[in-house]
Amino acid sequence: MSRSSLETSTFFSQMEEFGFFDTVEEHLPDEFTIIYEIARILEDTSHAIARSLAPIMELNDPSTTDAGTEHIVVPHVPEAKEYEADLITSVSEVRYVYPAQFLLPETVFLRKLAERSLWMPRPKQPRNFRYQSESDRFAPDDRKQKVYILFDTSNSMQHHYRIHLAKAIIYLFLRQNQRELGTIFFRTFDLHVGELLTARDIPSYEHLISTVMHIKAIGNGTSLQKALQTAIDDIAHESQLSNAQILVVTDGVAHIDLEHLQRQLGQHITVNTVKIGSARLAVDSVVVEGMVASSNAPEAIRIRDLFKQKRDFESQLNATTGKMRQDSLRAQINHVQGQIDLQTSRYGAVLAEHYGDEIRKLSTVYVNVDDIAPEEMFSLPEQKVAELENLADSLIEALRTERQVEDIKRAALLYDHLVLLMRYNKIDAQRFKEASEELERMLDHILNKPSSSSDDMPISELERAQLRNMLDSGTIGKRMSLALLLRIFWLKIVRAWRTRRQLRSFRSLRGTLPVRRSRR
After folding, report:
1. Residues 181 and 291 in one domain
2. Are 270 and 146 contained in the same domain?
3. Which of 8, 58, 205, 511 is the most buried (most CB within 10 A)?
4. Could you tell me where the DSSP H helices lie in 158-297?
5. 10 vs 8: CA distance, rounded Å
6. Residue 401 falls inside a structural domain
7. Does residue 94 register a pLDDT over 50?
8. Is residue 174 very low, low, confident or very high in pLDDT (cuts 50, 70, 90)?
9. Candidate from 95-99, 202-206, 472-476, 508-512 with smallest mean pLDDT
10. How far is residue 462's CA from residue 439's CA, in Å, rounded to a whole number?
11. Does any domain span residue 74?
């Protein structure tokens, strides 16, 4: 196996895009390598989920683009003409000259008129500047499409690997449309709305993808109304966001004030939505009461009017002393209460059918995808299984000849992924187990039995003891923590860098290199 297989591996290159090599944290998202497998499914255009997501992956409405010709985006040009100052060419144009020239003395004005030296605004053809579309990289431009992404981080996103699917969707959307994207805006939301993140250049674009990959579902509730209102307010106050497209990725069904948001969006802001899973919002008596009190629907207004009639009759009953009048008022109260119960029951049935589904009506493009079964995600073709085995063999060979920190991190990453695959892929589990055990033995050897090479980075005895405990069992159920392993490797790099910096400083002061004590 050659080192080129490691450098050209799609698995490692995609993990590098996700930012898992550059951003080493103590607590990485659980089972984060699943995103690679989901992205593999979504990139397969023949897969049912990929076909259902196709409309949302298009930055512009596919129906407005001729598929047989190259689509070139032209910025909006106002209908008003453009003008430039120019001298008149005939006496008949004197009525168009700039008004200030009429204040000149009559003799001077007539002489300038005769010389055709009076100035007038002359209309000219507007110039349209098309943005450069030759590059496939992300190159923000105010004339390109702006996208505002709202990402659901409610606790329910942890179920059925929904947050991993959402991350894969966002990743592929950004990658497939990076050529046409202008500035990207991003917020998370659950019960609260997260801070605004922006991507205006290549570094911030790559950082945004890494940030999305590291998101965890930790919130309670889904405040979609607040998230959409925040996005609309941001768009209203940011000139770069004019004519923006809002992309919502969520698994929840949340009630929103449809009419209010439609007015806020206007004609220039569109909303596209990806809903993951088949959850529905339960409608109980509390929900119905709240909607009766706040909704402007005709049914709710009718019920409020009935409640007002009932209160009026009850007030009259309290002020009446005659028995016949009291009996009549009680009969009217009972009748109105029957009407309230009937109307409330009908309104509840309507809410049960449509409540929480307003986002579908608000969206220009609405896609509902089912949860992906783990068995489907990890059912790999023979080519992929062989590729993972070859990667493991290449890493073992590379680590036996030279111990580069990058290869150690790759080995830890691949080991974690193989253990994850074994959980659901029973067909290829034995092959994955053999490869993972080889990687585990090599990592154990590196951490517990370091070579005497001067290039090895030292780690403390406490760190060795911790890793020995994690690697001791060698079983799937008690495997090492990848997050802690990567953290320790990062600490080793930082310690070695500080040591080398101290050596350089000492050399610059003394002109000699100090002798390092051997570690015992």
Report:
1. no
2. yes
3. 205
4. 162-176, 202-213, 224-237, 258-265, 285-294
5. 6
6. yes
7. yes
8. very high
9. 472-476
10. 22
11. no
User: Taking 50 as the threshold, does the pLDDT of residue 78 lie above it?
Assistant: no
Residue of 41 and 27 predicted with greater confidence: 41
Return d(Cα 417, Cα 275) in angstroms, integer.
Answer: 27
Question: For residue 8, is it within any domain?
Answer: no
The bridge status of strand 197-199 relative to strand 365-369 is: unpaired
- The percent of residues above 90 in pLDDT, for the chain, comes to 24
Query: Do 470 and 446 have their domain in common?
Result: yes
HSE at residue 194, side-chain half, CA atoms within 13 A, is: 23
Q: Inform me whether the pLDDT recorded for 332 exceeds 90.
A: yes
One-letter amino acid identity for 286? V
Distance of alpha carbon 322 from its chain centroid, rounded? 69
Q: What is the pTM of this model?
A: 0.68
What's the pLDDT band for 400 if we cut at 50, 70, 90?
confident
Co-location of 101 and 201 in the same domain: no
What is the C-alpha to C-alpha distance for residues 11 and 506, in angstroms, rounded to an integer? Answer: 42
Cα angle 183, 188, 193 (rounded to 5 degrees) comes to: 110
Residues 53 and 192 both lie in one domain: yes
User: Do 333 and 419 sit in the same domain of this protein?
Assistant: no
Mean pLDDT on 405-410: 78
Which is nearest to 292 in space by CA: 343, 359, 335, 339? 343
The one-character DSSP state at 183 is E
Does 480 reside within a domain? Answer: yes
User: Which has the minimum average pLDDT: 27-36, 132-141, 151-160, 448-457?
Assistant: 448-457
Q: Structurally, how many domains does the chain consist of?
A: 4
Query: Which pLDDT value is given to residue 79?
Result: 42
Six-digit token string for 303: 């019920």
Query: What CATH number does the domain containing 196 carry?
Result: 3.40.50.410
How far apart are the C-alpha atoms of 409 and 98, rounded to whole Å? 72
**323: domain range?**
285-355
Q: Is the dihedral of CA 198, 200, 204, 205 positive or negative?
A: positive
